[in-house]
Write a structure and sequence with these properties.
Structural class: alpha+beta
Strand order of the largest sheet: 1-2-3-4-5-6
Organism: Albidovulum sediminis
Order of helices and strands: HHHEEEHHEEEHH
Number of domains: 1
Low-confidence stretches: 1-19
Signal peptide: 1-18
Protein name: Chalcone isomerase domain-containing protein
Keywords: Signal
CATH topology: Chalcone isomerase
Mean pLDDT: 88
Number of helices: 7
Radius of gyration: 17 Å
Number of strands: 6
CATH class: Alpha Beta
Amino acid sequence: MPRAAVLLLSLLPALPLAAETAPSEVHAHLGAPQPLGRAEYRFLGARLYEATLFTAGTPRFDWNAPLALQLVYARSLSGQTLVDATMAELDRIEGAAPDHADIREKLMACFRDVGDGDRYVAVAEDADTVDFWLNGRKTCGLAHAEAKRRLLGIWLSAESRSERLARQLRGE
């Protein structure tokens, strides 16, 4: 096989990520967003969603930089299920923190029912605010101390349920 063809074939696994187009709400808040990593989440073999992390053009993960996490769902889930799962992960990572009831109440205003192909995007431009968008429509702006690390950390931190998938999203 010619050398150029081998080189082209070796690049194919990277093409889908490089070709990922950020949704308009990500462009509006991150300027020229770049996809940093992607991971597919499964439970008992069933695909739940595909996650993509976008940064504001930075080539590596940085909690101090603006971030956007996109989840494209592969199945139907109620908004209540999304809130319950988020809170279960916060409890697992942080233990029973005194402000969890307040966070739950705020998330109830953010999360709606989703179906196959629906897209939630969490945009965090600063440490204490995460804006949520469902299929291009803003559902809420959640303001809470360390909201970015705490909520996005469910997918991105070393304490994530799947460290391997968290590393993929962080582009490592």
